[in-house]
């Protein structure tokens, strides 16, 4: 996944993503997560969702690409940012919620299962995960990156026993029902 370690590729993505945000997803998150909660965003890209999340939450942004982290830090010098791999989740910090918008589709189903388990380990009690994906039942490779599409059934198969499904649904990002989200709650130990 070194595609976005290239500045030209990262800037190209920023242009493509212009005009898109996760405000609809964030409104769903607000049902489960009180204002003032701590939140980790996986895959900040241009930082659009991180800016929206900062309106209600205490956000930490992260990305696997140092270019996206550096770009956001240049615009927001006081931002709390991590360079973080979504599979290994190598941080000792804890959060009330972990959020991503069309980021974890770069993981295979096996990697997604590992990531979700590790994410649940980073959640505080009553923690919430919210992630969105493209809808479908295929896996593609593009520019060396995995693009995995999911359905309700394929997502249910990778949810670890450390969390429970609170809500899922489809929505339109570009076309009707082209996207799916899941909201997971950490189970009590």
Write a structural description.
The chain is an alpha/beta fold and 189 residues long. It has one domain (2-186): Vaccinia Virus protein VP39 (Rossmann fold), CATH 3.40.50. It contains 6 helices and 9 strands; from the N terminus they run H-H-E-H-E-H-E-E-H-E-E-E-H-E-E. The protein has helices at residues 7-17, 23-32, 48-53, 66-75, 109-122, 152-156, and strands at residues 38-42, 58-63, 81-83, 95-101, 123-134, 139-142, 145-148, 163-171, 179-186. The strands form 2 sheets. A 7-stranded mixed sheet has the order 3-2-1-4-5-9-8. Strands 6-7 form a two-stranded antiparallel sheet. Strand 2 (58-63), helix 4 and strand 3 (81-83) form a beta-alpha-beta unit.
Q: Quick one: overall form?
A: globular
CATH topology: Rossmann fold
Instruction: Give the averaged pLDDT, no decimals.
Output: 94
- Unreliable stretches (pLDDT < 50, length at least 5) are none
**Can you tell me the CATH superfamily?**
Vaccinia Virus protein VP39
The helical percent reads 25-40%
Tally of domains: 1
């Amino acid at each position: 996944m070194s595609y976005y370690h290239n500045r030209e590729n990262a800037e190209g993505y920023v242009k493509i993503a212009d005009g898109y945000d996760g405000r609809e997803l964030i409104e769903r998150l607000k049902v489960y997560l009180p204002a003032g909660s701590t939140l980790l965003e996986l895959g900040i890209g241009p930082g659009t969702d991180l800016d929206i999340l900062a309106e209600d939450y205490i956000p930490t942004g992260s990305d696997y690409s140092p270019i996206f982290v550096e770009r956001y830090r240049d615009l927001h010098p006081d931002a709390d940012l991590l360079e973080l791999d979504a599979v290994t989740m190598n941080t000792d910090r804890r959060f009330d919620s972990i959020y991503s918008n069309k980021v974890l589709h770069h993981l295979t189903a096996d990697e997604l299962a590992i990531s979700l388990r590790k994410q649940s380990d980073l959640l505080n009690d009553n923690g919430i995960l919210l992630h969105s994906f493209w809808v479908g039942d295929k896996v593609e490779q593009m520019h060396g990156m995995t693009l995995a599409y999911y359905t309700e059934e394929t997502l249910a198969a990778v949810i670890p026993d450390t969390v429970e499904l609170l809500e899922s649904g489809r929505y339109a990002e570009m076309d009707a029902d082209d996207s799916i989200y899941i909201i997971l709650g950490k189970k009590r130990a």
